[in-house]
Write a structure and sequence with these properties.
With 140 residues, the protein is of the alpha+beta class. A six-stranded antiparallel sheet has the order 1-2-3-4-6-5, with helices on one face. A hairpin with a 2-residue loop joins strand 3 and strand 4. The N terminus is likely disordered.
């Protein structure tokens, strides 16, 4: 884990604050990602309502990364001029859209929740896995 007020960001441009956490891509570690985000955002004095939304986004993205990733998942939180960037990467292949062994009401809502809470979302397939980005405005 790293937490810095470094001028260089993993987002590719200057950033006020950022932190990085890498965990095994296992569902047992999703709660660690969620608690890490909650504690860090409280330290950064992100207001409660935005913090709660951010933690829910982290939970949904980390759950997907744990479910579809193979080795590890990485959570990047970056706070930059009133915008919280949440980036979760995993080492998995493209997400399978439908799993016939699961009832439709049991899974598949996470992406909708993230899109509802975030101002923007992006999903990229990389050579080493997937990267999902969500941006959330945070009031001062």
């Amino acid at each position: 884990m790293t937490d810095s007020a470094s001028p260089t960001s993993l987002l590719g441009r200057p950033c006020r604050r950022q932190a990085l956490l890498t965990l095994p891509a296992q569902e047992a570690h999703v709660s660690a990602a969620r608690h890490f985000a909650a504690d860090l955002l409280e330290t950064w004095t992100v207001p409660t309502s935005e913090r709660d939304s951010a933690v829910l986004i982290v939970d949904e993205l980390a759950t997907n990364a744990a479910q579809y990733g193979h080795e590890r998942m990485t959570l990047l939180l970056a706070l930059d001029h009133g915008t919280l960037h949440i980036v979760v990467t995993d080492s998995g292949a493209a997400v399978e859209r439908r799993r016939p062994d699961l009832a439709p009401d049991e899974h598949g809502r996470g992406t909708g929740i993230v899109q509802y809470l975030a101002q923007s979302t992006e999903i990229h397939q990389t050579r080493s896995g997937r990267e999902v980005r969500a941006c959330l405005r945070c009031s001062p």
